[in-house]
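Box 3.1. Reading complex inputs
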Amino acid sequence: MKYKAYKDRLTKIADISYTTAVLGWDQETYMPEKGAGFRAQQIATLSGMIHELFTDKELGKTLNKLDNSKKLTEKQRRNITQTLKDYKRQKKYNREFVELLSKTQSECFQAWQQARKENNFKLYAPHLTKMIALKRKEAEILGYKKHPYDALLDQYEPGARVADLDILFKDVRSQLVAFVKKVAAAKQNDDKFMRLHYPKDKQWDFGIDLLKQMHYDFDAGRQDLSAHPFTTSFSPKDVRVTTRISENNFKSMIWSCIHEGGHGLYEQGLPDSEYGLPSGEAVSLGIHESQSRLWENMVGRGLPYWKANIKLARKYFPENLNDISAEQFWKASNIVTPSFIRTEADELTYHFHILIRYEIEKALMEGKLEVKDLPAYWNAKYKEYLGVKVPNDAQGVLQDIHWSHGSIGYFPTYSLGSFYAAQFYATAKKEVKSLEDKIENGNLLPLLEWLREKIHKHGKYYSAEELCKKVTGEKLNFNYFMDYATEKYSEIYGLK
Amino acid sequence: MKYKAYKDRLTKIADISYTTAVLGWDQETYMPEKGAGFRAQQIATLSGMIHELFTDKELGKTLNKLDNSKKLTEKQRRNITQTLKDYKRQKKYNREFVELLSKTQSECFQAWQQARKENNFKLYAPHLTKMIALKRKEAEILGYKKHPYDALLDQYEPGARVADLDILFKDVRSQLVAFVKKVAAAKQNDDKFMRLHYPKDKQWDFGIDLLKQMHYDFDAGRQDLSAHPFTTSFSPKDVRVTTRISENNFKSMIWSCIHEGGHGLYEQGLPDSEYGLPSGEAVSLGIHESQSRLWENMVGRGLPYWKANIKLARKYFPENLNDISAEQFWKASNIVTPSFIRTEADELTYHFHILIRYEIEKALMEGKLEVKDLPAYWNAKYKEYLGVKVPNDAQGVLQDIHWSHGSIGYFPTYSLGSFYAAQFYATAKKEVKSLEDKIENGNLLPLLEWLREKIHKHGKYYSAEELCKKVTGEKLNFNYFMDYATEKYSEIYGLK
């Protein structure tokens, strides 16, 4: 009966959380401009209620009793362990700190917007300095064993630690930098045809077809337009994705669509019987990103996929694509070229962008880097890892929203996602018979079923590390990504 | 400070209520099919929280103290009076009753759906019987002075009583029935051109143009499609309307669009400084309906309006309308003909549909009519008032959703709305200089400004009766509607 009380409480909290997600989705898709003020207030009220319900003493008592209970199933026990961990974390924050953080966030975000608009880092610096100080305090509040950054990383990627990430990013630095240099020296492929005129409506229909082919369930989801593509979930039976369409950049829609579709498939695959419980949630941001990246890059930027889909693309855009072969399309979708904007980066140089942010965040948390020195540090790193000169701060250190929200520790999950994706995909190729032949025939169901069975259906039952070991036989290993990248891009750029 | 505590609490409740409205809006417009189950659960959770917050003892104490305070402004005092009345009403329900009602509602609704589908009233009868018994019990719980129906009417139309409605509907019966007979005997006008092919996209654009002309603010609202048109509000700065489009019935979109636009203008005109308080809410369903009916019928089915808009209509649909004059369009939009479906009725015979439901609800609440005798009673009334033979129960007694939800006392507000509308419009014609000339020139702003000033901006500060007296100088008087109808339809049908 205690477990039922626990489940009921978490269901109620989930009802409010998912409702808040509906408010957020509407805000980004359909809300009229003037609705913003009251909408922000409504979201704040609901968020406050969630915090209140989740830190309620009664819930704490229930959790502690259940934690000592011998009568639970293994799944129940894991749910309790997870929730108790979250409960204890939430309880560490006192009201003053939460309010100060919330106030600083909103000031910092506004200052960031202004600073980016005016290309003036100095407008942002004092607010970011305050934010970093608060985040260092937050790390102390939350506690950590070795490194203050660990406390923040754990919020996005439970179990992620500086000690492990240092090793991982050392590999990125040593292996990927060298390989990208080789690629950059090779003859570039042509992707001009991707920037012809692609009418909006036809792009939309093409994107919907791609999602359907992935078996994204449109009876349990939908796609809409938004300025920045995202995926959000109101239950495993109602998972929404969004996309954006640029009429002179065909790439923008295609891979945002497949990427969000990958996130969407994960959410649709979570067990609805575990609604509101850890076992009904995604493992971590990194594992979530592994699903989007696997579909986007390993599948959607693969040759078999375009052998399957070039005809469909030609059907929608005959003028632009009738003379383009699957190979040409594939090569054009995998142009590697160093740049200074993260969100526009290719799948290899992308990780240098993350690496730079990781090193900066770590240094900020250690107190070894001061906010005032950030722009120079940033620009030097871009020169070092990407060989590019950052033209100005607006397109440099001010390009990302994350720090203005206080999201320190979020960026590494993007790289983790790609590396997990490569490792999962390598395993899928071994375990799903003739996987890429199937993809080449447009049959994506066997891959989805494998992901459902191996990853989606377990929710947060396993930690990221446990899941990775269970699925692939070993813990996260950067070699899988490096092998994938080397093989793929050696072929594309004729480096063999 | 007490008043601030009251306002803060009501703001919080409003945040949750408006959020629930977002969930409802999404459910009717964009939600994918499979999302229904969890969505219903989420709405139930939020509704429960609203009830909990609104019946909280602390709120009761605050209200009672404020009710005795001498320090309040008149507006504050009226807010407290209203909220205290609502609070006391909510407190009368015990948990068992609320749960039983909720359970009965969902069973009754399901039975109604099935019964209508199968044209089998017997499937519905036992559930409706249970519902009526509960509603009679609810009237006892709520209390009343003269008639149990009064207690239910008051929920939708505060202050409405059987004693007054009996007089009103007696007028409807004696005056309107006779006049409609005269109209029915006259030569019918041609509206075949309304049923030509009107492409969906063009209808949509035309409807948007009509809403813009009404000064519906699209920065504080939007229109979407739904099976049944409705208006919903998430704040005065975010008011959504929906419409439906039938390609072979031009009328369906036009007047649903103007009707919901009228509701929308009222919500957009409520004072946002009074968000969440009675003075920031609509007076009653009847007054709300007066705004939609005034725009739909007095304005949107008037000759000046079509003199202004026939050219626009022709621009969108030249093939269908180039040979149609404003007069022809106007006459075609005012076809009076008795029928057996309420939602398709013209603005005169509509009230017989309401009259029938009113008489039935009253008799059910008095215990003078039993559910098993409903179909025969219904059909006899339709014969008597409308002269039509109801073909079957699905298109007869089973046509409306209201009773299956337990909404007893709701129907009369539809007629009240039309009658208030006629009275308000008659006053507007006196007070707004050359009103109909302005309408004929497509200038609807003076009318909107008058409505804003006289009605919208006051929220619920006045009761319906007070408001009516303040705006028109007298309480609700059916003669205004009768005069409007006689003049308009005598001209249309050549009865002068």
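In summary: The first strand of chain A starts at residue 221 and ends at 225.
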